[in-house]
Design a protein that fits this description.
The chain is α+β, with helices and mostly antiparallel strands. The chain has one domain: Roll (Thiol Ester Dehydrase, Chain A), CATH 3.10.129.10. Helices cover 25% and strands 35% of the residues. The protein contains six helices and six strands, in the order αββαααααββββ. Strands 1, 2, 3, 4, 5 and 6 form a six-stranded antiparallel β-sheet that branches. The radius of gyration is 18 Å and the shape is elongated. The relative contact order is 0.23. The model has no long low-confidence stretch (mean pLDDT 96).
């Protein structure tokens, strides 16, 4: 683990408010992934799973479910955002805002960029973070998705 990869104390992390705190690697969205997500969620709308029919739409190809893109945030976060020292619990508190801005065509690559917007102690030993998240599409001007993600972090009292 390099010095840049070392876990941060919550006080070190909060000093990064307003900064990008993580950028994931590019990740390919292929048809097999979209089909698997369709099976799990039982959302088999043709724009996701039927390449022939989808080719004749404005998208020109099948597109990933918006909720698939949203669901990848946990993996992107684990990959890209520094770990915090001494965490006893991390609770996904939800989203203030999620917007699906641009479709993600199968065959595209995406990545997430995380900016720490807020980091506040809610009560002794419990901190709330707000991450502004942008999921980018490689080579595209507009993002696939933007979101405000809330997490509660517990630390030893």
């Amino acid at each position: 683990m390099s010095m840049d990869d070392r876990p941060l104390s919550i006080n070190e992390f909060r000093l990064k408010c307003g900064e990008i705190v993580g950028r994931s690697d590019w990740f390919a969205i292929d048809q097999a992934l979209v089909d698997s997500f369709a099976d799990v969620t039982r959302d088999h709308q043709f724009i996701h799973v039927d390449p022939e029919r989808a080719r004749h739409t404005d998208f020109g190809a099948t597109v990933a479910h918006g909720f698939l893109i949203l669901s990848l945030l946990s993996a992107f976060h684990a990959e890209a955002v520094p770990a915090l020292k001494d965490v006893t619990v991390a609770i996904n508190s939800g989203f203030n805002r999620v917007r699906f801005v641009s479709p993600v065509r199968t065959g595209s690559r995406i990545r997430a960029v995380f900016t720490l917007a807020e980091c506040d102690e809610q009560k002794p030993g419990y901190w709330r973070t707000l991450l502004d998240v942008q999921v980018q599409i490689e080579g595209a001007d507009k993002p696939a998705m933007v979101a405000e993600w809330l997490t509660i972090w517990g630390f030893p009292a």
